[in-house]
Amino acid sequence: MKSxxxxxxxxxxxxxxxxxxxxxxxxxxxxxxxxxxGADKYGMKPYTIVMLTSGSAKIEDKAKMGKLMKGHMANxxxxxxxxxxxxxxxxxxxxxxNYRGMFIFNTQSKEExxxxxxxxxxxxxxxxxxxxxxxxxxxxxxxxxxxHDEISKENP
Length: 156
Fold this sequence. Notes:
Elements: H1 2-24, H2 31-37, E1 44-54, H3 62-81, E2 85-90, E3 99-105, H4 110-117, H5 121-124, E4 128-138, H6 145-151
Antiparallel strand pairs: 1-3, 1-4, 2-3
């Protein structure tokens, strides 16, 4: 029993050491990739976040609301395919600010982000309103989108 415990401890230490060695290795800098993504010297770039809030419209008709939500999702897909939106998603619980969802747009222009969010049928109908904020994040953020289709079985 003691030798099994020692063996397990040794394996865990080896795995921990390997993980630490892997973590310590810095990937080689890729100037071409950094330039293509618009990265600054820190690998970052400006974006614009749009926080969706509840709008003033109260739509009771489930068919109409379903159509608006279908249009909302299609618009997100269109903006993503155009490279304008890099993150979109709803919040999973209520919050004091009444934020319903979030977009991260691939622009530093608040005006451009406002134009893009206004293409959303649910925003047009007043189901959602929005607030816009400048944001600074990893320039690599858009890269996850190309892999999303590989891991999703269904689209909403």
